[in-house]
Design goal:
With 526 residues, the protein is an alpha/beta fold. It has 2 domains: 234 residues, 3-Layer(aba) Sandwich (Aldehyde Dehydrogenase, Chain A, domain 1); 189 residues, Aldehyde Dehydrogenase, Chain A, domain 2, CATH 3.40.309.10. Helix content is 38%, strand content 21%. The chain is built from 17 helices and 25 strands. Strand 11, helix 9 and strand 12 form a beta-alpha-beta unit. The longest helix has 29 residues. The radius of gyration is 25 Å and the shape is globular. It starts with 13 loop residues before the first strand and ends in a 12-residue tail after the last helix. Bound molecules: glyceraldehyde-3-phosphate. Glyceraldehyde-3-phosphate (G3H) binds next to loops. The site of glyceraldehyde-3-phosphate (G3H) has 9 residues, from loops. Keywords: Oxidoreductase. Belongs to the aldehyde dehydrogenase family. InterPro entries: Ald_DH/histidinol_DH, Ald_DH_C, Ald_DH_CS_CYS, Ald_DH_N, Aldehyde_DH_dom, Aldehyde_DH_Superfamily.
């Protein structure tokens, strides 16, 4: 019996048998990899087969490199030299087509990564909005650069230009939004892209392939399938990648960088691991802190780089905090992503429950207890969130980024304790600070802003809104992403300068009047 409501059923298998290279959806006849969902469609649990994707290798990887390299053509290609307004038109064409794929992509987000219906819709809509905002921001950047400045007898028009070929790799937890937060600014700034979808959340790219193909000139966007080792490695080894844009873990980022023969030429735009702490001060509003810590640690089962991954609670309030926090965790509903009122959903990685169990076993063997009744309960594709207390530095869960449903709680007496731990940590993305007394909070904020890149006062950590800078210190990031900053991360300042004399000025004026140059141009795009 099929237990899935009709509108969310997968009517037929999605056999992805094409890949996008050099402006063509090429047929794939080689080896394939099945794509399973950990969600069961039958009463007796079994993973659901969703379809299959190509298992590509070096040949296809190098084909994509060649296509992107030709599209850039050392900066002489059609795309990097195109008028800003024309690149924007291509992007608008893409997003218009993309909007028609919403229900299909949302359905696949639920099946492939288990994201709730509401959050899947949010991911799609946020991505569309991100594209429109990026277009507006690019127009503004263009308008601000559309003039000459005269300094020390030199006239200059300073703009931003593309860097070259981008290898774009996104994470499975936001396979659409985070990937596109790299892909879209990279493209719009004039760079050709090679994109390989994440390990989960692959089939949801299929409905977008035709939109990509028909919106951009050939070779500007190339989409490959397969494993990182087989596909991304040859791309990097070719030495033709100018930007590695990756949201994922530092191990893969380092391995890929190391394969580039000319590392000095490689720009990095990376969003990596984090272990964001919450610090709950004695005067914190406990209702608010608990509500924010629940959302912060467990939305999308804790599979967010911005998730709260360790809670520091002042010893004077820990008993009360734990009691109320644990009972709120147990009240969370587990179910399939389309079910009403669910906040906990199947884990897309089938090995994740065992990994989380390993963290629990390690912590409990070293003195922690699971303080919520349902903590650690297993089902076929899930492990119920365990709240672990008290945590110490001997435990794996103190150090490892769990990226899943387990919440470690640690106490402190003196605020210097969490500060020292954060200073020692390899991560430095964000922190949540709960408290009220400004005499305590003021000096703390002044320190915390230097330990991480965003201090969330009385609220959980998050990336959005996308106009704010998203970055991190130490091993958590390289470069900054936001609508504004990403345009800068994927481009370089470049300009035309000439001595201020009649001879040169006449030429510049003629260039401006003729509109022959796409660079020396003062057109405003409204
Ligand atoms: O996985 C990390 C994401 O950047 C988190 O974004 O805070 O919007 O969930 P979010």
């Amino acid at each position: 019996m099929n237990l899935i409501p009709e509108e969310f059923q997968i009517s037929s298998l999605i056999i992805q048998d094409t890949y996008l290279v050099n402006g063509e959806l090429k047929k794939w006849t080689g080896q394939t990899t099945p794509v399973f969902s950990t969600i069961s469609s039958t009463e007796k649990y079994e993973p659901t087969l969703l379809g299959s994707i190509p298992f590509m290798g070096e040949t296809e990887a190098l084909e994509a490199v060649e296509a992107a390299d030709v599209a850039f053509n050392n900066g002489q290609g059609l795309w990097p030299t195109m008028k800003v307004v024309d690149r924007i038109k291509c992007m608008e064409k893409f997003v218009t087509q993309m909007k028609n794929t919403r229900s299909e992509v949302v359905k696949l987000l639920m099946w492939e990564i288990g994201k709730t219906l509401g959050d899947s819709e949010k991911e799609f809509d946020r991505t569309v909005e991100y594209i429109y905002d990026t277009i507006e921001s690019y127009k503004e950047l263009n308008a601000r650069s559309a003039h000459f400045s005269k300094v020390q007898g030199i006239n200059a028009m300073v703009r931003r230009g593309p860097l070259g070929v981008v290898l774009c790799l996104g994470p499975y937890n936001y396979p659409l939004n985070e990937t596109f937060s790299l892909l879209i600014p990279a493209l719009i700034m004039g760079n050709p892209v090679i994109f390989k979808p994440a390990k989960h959340g692959v089939l949801l790219i299929s409905p977008l392939l035709e939109a990509f193909r028909s919106s951009f000139p050939k070779g500007v966007i190339n989409i490959l399938y397969g494993r990182g080792r087989e596909v991304a490695s040859p791309v990097m080894k070719s030495g033709k990648v100018d930007i590695l844009a990756l949201i994922g873990n530092s191990k893969s980022a380092i391995a890929l960088q190391d394969q580039h023969p000319n590392k000095n030429r490689l720009r990095l735009v990376l969003g990596l691991e984090a272990k964001n702490p919450a610090i709950i001060l004695p005067d914190a509003d406990l209702d608010l802190a608990i509500q924010e810590c629940i959302a912060g640690s467990l939305s999308f089962n804790g599979q967010r780089c911005t998730a709260l991954k360790i809670l520091y609670v002042h010893e004077s309030i820990v008993e009360e905090f734990n009691k109320r926090f644990a009972s709120k965790v147990d009240a969370l509903n587990f179910g399939n992503p389309w079910e009403k009122g669910v906040s906990l959903t199947p884990l897309p990685e089938k090995e994740k429950p065992a990994y989380i169990q390993g963290l629990i076993d390690d912590a409990t063997s070293k003195g922690a207890k699971v303080i919520n009744a349902k903590g650690g309960q297993h089902s076929a594709n899930y492990i119920f969130p365990a709240v672990l207390f008290p945590i110490n530095k001997e435990m794996r869960v103190y150090h490892e980024e769990q990226f899943g449903p387990v919440v470690p709680v640690i106490t402190f007496k003196d605020i210097q304790e969490p500060l020292n731990d954060m200073a020692e940590s390899n991560y430095g993305q964000q922190v949540s600070l709960f408290g009220k007394d400004i005499k305590t909070i003021a000096p703390l904020i002044d320190t915390l802003v230097n330990l991480v890149s965003r201090v969330n006062l009385n609220s959980s950590c998050q990336r959005g809104p996308d106009v704010f800078p998203f970055t991190g210190r130490k091993d958590s990031a390289v470069g900054t992403l936001s609508i504004h900053d990403a345009l800068r991360s994927f481009s370089i300042r470049t300009f035309v300068a000439s001595k201020d004399n009649d001879y040169n000025n006449e030429i510049l004026q003629a260039l401006l009047n003729s509109k022959e140059s796409n660079f020396i141009n003062t057109d405003y795009i409204l």
